[in-house]
Amino acid sequence: MKKIQYIVITAILFAFVGCSEDILDKKPLDQYSDADFWKDPNLAVTAINQLYKYLTPDDSYHNWEAFTNNAINGVGSGSENSRKYTQIGWTAEDANNGMRGWTMDCAIMHAAPWFVSSKWELYYREIRDCNNAIKNLTATENKNERLEQLLGEAKFVRAYLYHMLTNYFGGVIIVDTPLGLKDEVNLPRDTYNDCVDFMINDLDDAAAVLPKIWTGEDVGRATSGAAKALKGRIQLYGERWSDAAATYQSIIDDPERPYDLFPDYQTMFFQENENNQEVITDVQFIYPELLYHGNNQCLPGSQNGWGAGNPTQDLVDQFELLDGKSWDDPSSEYYNPSDPYANRDKRFYATIQYDQGVYFGKRLETGSGFDGDENLVKGIDVEKNNDVTQTGYYLCKYIDARGELKYDAAASIPSKGTNVIVMRYAEVLLGYAEAKNEANGPDNSIYEAINEVRNRAGLPGLPTGLSQDEMRSKIRKERRVELSFEHLYYFDCLRWRDESRFATPHVVNISYTYELNSDGSVKTDETQRKIVISREFSYAEYAEKRVFNLDTDFSWFFPIPQEELDKNPEIIQNGDFTGNTK
Amino acid sequence: MKKNECIFREWKIPGLQKALRIMRLTVFLLFLSVISVFASKSYSQTKVLNLNMKNSTVKEVLRNIEKQSEFVFMYSEKLVDVNRETSVNVKNQKINEVLDELFAGTNVEYKVKDRFILLTISEGDTNDLFGQQQKSVSGSVADENGQPLPGVTVTVKGTTSGTITNGNGEFSISNVPEDAVLQFSFIGLKTREIEVAGKDIINVVMEEETIGIDEIVVIGYTTQKKGTMTSSVSVVKADDIQKNAVADVSNTLSGKASGLIVRNNNAEPGNDASTIYVRGVSTTGNNDALVVVDGIPDRDLTLIDINDIESVTVLKDASAVAPYGSRGANGVILITTKRGKEGKPTISYKAYYGVSKPTRLPEFCSSADYARMFNEASRNEGKTEPFTSDDISKFESGTNPDYPNTNWWDEIIQKDPLQAQHNLSISGGKENINYYLSLGAYRQDGYFDKADFRKYNIRTNIDANVTKDFKVSLDMMGYTDEDNNPSKSISMFLEYPMRIPNTWPVKISDGQYVKPTVCDNAVAELEYGGSTVDKGNNFNGSLTFEYKPSFIGGLTLKGLGVYDFGGSHTKIWVTPYTTWRMIDRANSLYEEIPPTTKPSLEERSYFSSAKQVEFHADYKTTIAEKHNLGALFVFNLTEWNSNWMNGKRINYASTSIDQLFAGPSDGQSTDGSASEGSRLGYIGRLTYDYSAKYMAEVNFRYDGSMKFAPGQRWGFFPSFSLGWRISEENFIKDNLKFIDNLKLRGSWGQAGNDRVGDYQYLATYAMQSTPYSLGGDAVQAAKESRLPNPDITWEVATLTDIGLEGTLWKHLLTIEADYFFKRTEDILRPTQKTSSIIGIALPDANIGIVENKGIDFTLGHHNRINDFNYHVNFVYTYATNKTIELGEAEGTLNDPFRRQTGNPLNSSYGKIAEGLFTSVEEIANSPYQGSGIVPGDIKYKDFNGPDGVPDGVIDAYDVTKIGYSSVPEIIYGINISAEYKGFDLAMNFQGATHVNYTFTDYAGYAFYNGGNIQTWQIEERWTTENNNANARYPRLTTSPGSNNITTSSYWLRDATYLRLKTLQIGYSFNQSLLSKVNVKGLRVYLSGQNVFTWVKDDLFKFDPEAYHQWGQFYPRAKVYTIGIDLTF
Contacts of residue B1042 in chain A, CB cutoff 8 Å? Predict the structure, then answer.
């Protein structure tokens, strides 16, 4: 009997294992399978939400600005990685002709540095997500209005991503569907023109279905105006002047135009004025999950920053005096070389931290002087080994420095989740002016557009009777000032083919005469800042000397990453990045 | 009767045994007298017997007599040795004649009472028996050549009494029970057990232990005699493993078995498990060997207490791994834990205490030298020198606290951190139950004050014979650990000393911590930065039913159920603190930096479990005495699942309680997920041998894995092997007597690997952890997470092995050598051919092919010179692989310089350095390698360009294979052990070669990212005065120039090393002394781990066994321990 029991026990065990193969049918528990995903419109919305993240700056704006004569990346920006940006397109040398940081001149650029290859890969990754949404939403039967809008949103983002990609690389491979393993991927590049057509097509589709404004919980989504503004920009970059002018004009002349300039240039960028009337598209950051840190890095060490992306003297010089004359024009009623920062374009104070300006309740000190014992005493914002400016200036766009500085990352703007503007109405006005001027030469509508922007900055309108060339340079200057550190100037420089923009930028040196205590030490105010009686300014090339290697058949675009050339023999490299030198 | 007696023996009631024994004899004699009453005459006189028996026991003879007559024998086996072998040949003889012959020369007497015959022993002896049942025994012990053996341990089995033979090999031992068994043991000789059985004098010949042939080896799902095995396995002795002062079993195996390549990239306490490669690397995917513990695959080696290990077997060839064929492609490590054996309980206590310190660390220069070098670097770049000569002399004098010479490593390291282990085990068995119970505790303090690791484990292995043919085994293992660390990862603390120059003071004179520009203040971060606490709990349990039906001899049916579960809990408590920024060193000016964040707490919980059910049918039979047949069938089902969740709160008001409730719910976050999986397998094996001379084996495994799409799930993996014991052939036996054993074997087979990411055949979407915000509120965002490959299936390795095993001159030389060749196909890897415009990470596809081949061998030597006994064992593994197909991008594939296909996996690739530039002219006349190159910079070789020819530019085309991978091709070990009198010595040397590392970043470059400078970088550097093209460090710059830190042969380090991994000297106390205090054995030892390390490359400043190119690995420890092994 007992034996039988044991046989039974063993048999039961056998029964356990004798179950069916179903046990091998498992489903992922940490993801949705794609079959389930697109069936549910609520999930489809989450896929579109993801696309908006791709409007986030692909690098800090100051890094891009430091490719131009608007900025130098400060020593204090610390890592070699950030400093590398200064060397794209030129070789940077410091004042003593020694090499500073990394060198990466265009002759050896086809060994694409990581930040170039990462852009190529990054944008195609993001484009795939758009393609996925577009393909699956297009295939959805019985689309309601919301689904059509979602499709439009996806097309808007896709056009924006191709816009960035073509900005960096020129004509790229147009991929308009999510590719599978068995699809041909070794495709040749499309021309820049084809890419422009493709983007415009997407934006026309988007503009047709998107609403003019979003309300409530949808504020921040792409609008028809955003699609048009982007279309205008793409046409402008593509030098389709009259098309661009027409597109921009359709925005400006819209009787129900939801956009207008925000009265105050400085606070337009602050958190309190997010989604204001000037904003066409912005990245809706949220604290603490999704943040843009770029501009915080530009604060001086004394304000918890890294001292990155220092504005140059060349940029500072662009800000006119309130009468519209240059700061060094003795004919101006505001001309004052001993206090060059007074009575300037309002945008100057919103963009530049300058010596003796007050930020977070403390005066900036970027000069130096002597104490009673003839010892050199540097201002706090130039005296430290790190995190100090290379130019005498710091950036303050987006920085709300009105209150006290708090040693709390959350308190610093725009880390707090302040939205970063991608397109605003001023760009539309200036874009219109440029396109129209290139197409037809100056006319009254151009003056109106540009003067609207100037007046907001407290400046008088442009003198009338400018030639097309004069108008061109006025518009370019206005764009540079109005849109500095907004990731536009770098592309402007490239499309204007203006090599002077790559020249070695100028910097300021400030010598203080301090008020001294009786013991010869420097007197300080209640904020521990040294009291300065007078300043002397001298201007020089300094910090880094830029050698622009145009003689090496420089390409205005980035090289396609070598890795991609290795994979796809159909790709033809940009410019002379193929490895031949001189 | 005998077994019942054992029960009482356990309990040691004084006098009871003796009383019982007397009682039994009394009964016997009473019975005898009763039957004698019925006695009648002359059957014995008349009955004649015929016997012809050769080599039979006395018992069989008696039984034969009983069969052919009516005689009944009565005897006590205790008195009469009936198991003695004898030969009788009698014809028509009477019983007394037969018995006279049978017992001639013995002390046996007989009394014939009609048909009853009583066998007893001579009067004197029985007196002994009745009078005193304990006696003295003496004798001598000699070896096979008749040489007396001193120092042999003689114990009365199951007691603590015993002695050791004297210089003439003689012993004497008193108070020995009549039925006692004497155990003779001597290291290197076969232990002998001899029943006293009334003998006064016992002379013993002890034979050499036959290593190998009769050794029982645990292999997949069964055990086999080493002699008849046809597959390639290595066995690591538990003894060798247990001599290592490390916590993780994986760290004990290096250099212990041929074919094993063990890599450890981090020796952090509690996180130091090594990766084990069997015969090197042969796939671009997961190369790890499969770990099987007590027959259960995929158990965590880390959970095993080293002291619980009975044996470790490494399965290397196709035939050996076949039972685990679906995942055995990379070899299998089989661990078997100890089980109880029948006998008195053995209580064993093992413990050691030790202190550790890092084996090798880079050396950093003084603050004064730092300042001088930084000035030189600044000069080299035409910059102004930041340090004045006054600064430097202040650094030199060291009197000014603002000009310190801070050795950051010394500041944070804990001196002599403790390492200790305890293990207490009880094992034994009674008639129906055998048990092994053990309890272990381990503690290891880290190099840093806040880092330590503790673990506790418990194991019970119980075997119960429910009936003669039905056995149940219950194995349970419980494990808990706690790993304490600072909140920042330990690797950061290894980085800090490389990062912070010695010029930085730790504190301002008033005790406030200084914030170095480059990173955190390491000391403050350690002290105030918070903590990470990892706690783990694991349970492994299995219940096995084993049924050997008596009606089918040789058949074993086995069913087993396994339930393993484990969990871990991690708590990361980050507490910000105030530091002070240096504003002006000369004027001792500092500025307070209050913390920018508030305390935060993150807790993570992880739970996983695995279930297995398995059924075995095993049949063994012998046909016609020579044909040994075996068949095994196994069915296995495995299911596992895991889930995790975490929660985080930020902005704590206070640091006094580190619990989630104490933080504000504003800003809190949670997350969680789960996964599950399953596998089905059928395993079959047929074995055959002819007189243990010719052997053959066929195996298969048929497996289904949920990792693949239906239709691609099942894989069939066959193998077969052949063996020939040449030494069993007469021509060897007769002519080459020095050959004790010689075997040739070969195997061929296939094995699979499914260790790839789950569900690669499915397209999926995942919610993203970062939300977006719309309308001012966070909204969920999701994206496609995977490009599916529905065709994905098993990776298949085809393994061929030819091996030779031999034992010569009675173990003066043993050899086991194998040649192996392995071709792994269908390797799962993403193709590199596809342009990234596809926009998503490519799924794995079955595209790769890698060939791996090599040899491994073990050479052993064992000898004994009187009481000096020693073993030398050399293990060697050479494994080199070649990639045949990688799916490499066309551009590089077609470039003979850059292609990786055809080279070993993970070889080093980089530019070829041709020394340093020494003049501006040289730079101008050399290929262009970027602007800004000056003398003292590295010069690279131009050998390639876009058109396949040198193009005058140094660029990505000038990259090629420059060295080996970081997994060594050759690894070897020399193991020496010796015993003399009570002393024993063990040494394990271990080395590797054909291995290259490259150190970069803080570990490789001076002033990297504001970092420190190492002493060798100063000593070897190029300077304008030392304008040497062969200088081993380029010109100093204030941050390393991109030209000089490009991956190149300049920075390639040869990591060839040899180290004395284990050195242990022990002493075992004399047993006769110990017996007085009821102790069976006591051994004390001193041990050193990683005592000595030699590295070939003098610029190699890190521990050679671990590798992280940033040098951020926790260095291996030199550990000195003192320990005891106590048994009673």
Answer: 80, 102-104
Strands, DSSP E only, in A402-502? 420-424
Please report residues of A whose CB lies closer than 8 A to that of B842.
Answer: 181
pLDDT digits 0-9 by tens, B987-1038 = 999 999 999 998 888 889 999 888 899 999 999 999 999 999 999 999 998 8
How do residues B303-357 score in pLDDT, each as one tens digit?
888 889 988 888 888 888 888 867 777 888 899 999 888 888 889 999 999 998 8
Residues 6+ apart with CB under 8 A from B149: B141, B142, B143, B165, B169, B186, B189, B206, B867
B158 Cα to chain A: minimum distance (Å): 34
CB B799 within 8 A of CB B318: yes
* Disruptive mutation site among B581, B652, B783 for chain A (greatest number of A CBs within 10 Å): B783
Distance from CA of A175 to the nearest CA of B (A): 7
The tokens describing A47, both together, are 């896929």
B759 and A100 within 8 Å at the Cβ level: the answer is: no
What does the H/E/C string look like for B1031-1088? Answer: CCECCCCCCCCCCCCCCEHHHEEECCEEEEEEEEEEEECCHHHHHCCCCCEEEEEEEE
pLDDT digits (tens, 9 = 90+) for A125-144: 999 999 999 999 998 887 88
Measured CA to CA, the distance from residue B446 to residue B260 in angstroms comes to: 28
Residue from A399, A389, A414, A381 nearest A311 by CA = A389
Q: What angle do CA B1094, B1098, B1099 make, to 5 degrees?
A: 130
Measure the CA–CA gap between A447 and A464, rounded to whole angstroms.
8
In 3D space, the residue among B1001, B1128, B1006, B985 whose CA is nearest the CA of residue B1065 turns out to be: B985
Both tokens of residue A415? 């880390």
* Bond from prior residue into A414 cis (ω within 30 degrees of 0): yes
Q: Which residues in chain A (161-180) have CB-CB distances under 8 A to chain B? A: 173, 175, 178-180
Tokens at B872, concatenated: 């030398």
Chain B CB contacts of A175 under 8 Å are 837, 839
Order of strands, sheet of A32-33, starting from the edge strand that comes earlier in the sequence: A32-33, B764-767, B782-786
Query: For the whole prediction, is pTM greater than 0.90?
Result: no
Return d(Cα B319, Cα B231) in angstroms, integer: 5
A vs B, Cβ pairs < 8 A, gives 313
My answer on whether omega of the bond before A288 falls inside 30° of 0, hence cis, is yes
A551 touches chain B (CB under 8 A): no
Measured in Å, how far apart are chain B's first and last C-alpha atoms? 27
CB contact at 8 A, A48 and A150: yes
Cβ pair B1127, B428 in contact under 8 A: no
- Angstrom distance (rounded) from CA A382 to CA A390: 8
Write the ipTM: 0.86
A34 at the B interface (CB within 8 A)?
A: yes
In whole angstroms, what is the distance from residue B918 CA to residue A549 CA? 26
Contact at 8 Å (CB) between B325 and B1087? no
